[in-house]
Amino acid sequence: MTTRNIQDYVTVLIADQLFGIPVLEVHDVLRGLRLTKIPLAPAEVAGVLNLRGRIVTAIDVRERLGLPQRKDKENGMSIVVEHQGEPYSLMIDDVGEVLSLDLNELLPTPVTLNSCWKEVSGGVYRLENKLLVVMQIEQLLNFADNSTIAA
């Protein structure tokens, strides 16, 4: 008998792909962002916002992954996470529900997964009618090479 090892994920949608971000990594869920642009910033940096007195860098996840821009930029949402002690607002298409999933059912990232998703994937869950990709925030926010992940 295997023991259940449950992990809670906030589900988010980016370009029709379902992602899961561990609940403990999510600090806030935001809508209606008022961003201040940063001159000469990399394309994936959409700007900064003030969140309760803290300056938060907003990352356009679609741009970061080399995906086409949303047609309707007004209705996007954002998940605030922390990386190396700094807050980041991840601009996403939509936020879904919180799912409690068994880590024993986490599968390795399929080789056939779109290359833009593979780089940030920590594995996948096969749900009833879709694939949930577990997002590795540290990979998404690794700006060491200062380029998009999918490039």
What's the layout of helices and strands?
Layout: E1 6-14, E2 17-22, E3 26-31, E4 45-51, E5 54-60, H1 61-64, E6 77-83, E7 86-92, E8 94-102, H2 115-118, E9 121-126, E10 131-135, H3 137-140
Parallel strand pairs: 2-10, 5-7
Antiparallel strand pairs: 1-2, 1-8, 3-6, 4-5, 6-7, 9-10
Describe this structure in words.
By secondary structure, the chain is mainly β. It has one domain (6-140): OB fold (Dihydrolipoamide Acetyltransferase, E2P) (Beta Barrel). Helix content is 8%, strand content 46%. The protein is built from 3 helices and 10 strands; from the N terminus they run E-E-E-E-E-H-E-E-E-H-E-E-H. It has a 5-stranded mixed β-sheet. 25% of the residues are buried.
Which labels suit this protein?
151 residues, mainly beta, OB fold (Dihydrolipoamide Acetyltransferase, E2P), 5-stranded mixed β-sheet, Chemotaxis protein CheW
CATH superfamily: CheA-289, Domain 4
The Rg value, from CA coordinates, equals 15 Å
Shape: globular
Number of domains: 1
Low-confidence stretches: none
Q: In CATH terms, what is the fold-level topology?
A: OB fold (Dihydrolipoamide Acetyltransferase, E2P)
In CATH, the architecture is Beta Barrel
Helical stretch tally: 3
Major sheet, described briefly?
5 strands, mixed
List SSEs in N-to-C order: EEEEEHEEEHEEH
Instruction: Kindly estimate the percentage of residues that lie in beta strands according to DSSP.
Output: over 45%
- Decide which structural class fits the backbone: mainly beta
Share in helix: under 10%
Distance between the first and last residues' Cα: 44 Å
Q: What oligomerization state is this entry in?
A: single chain
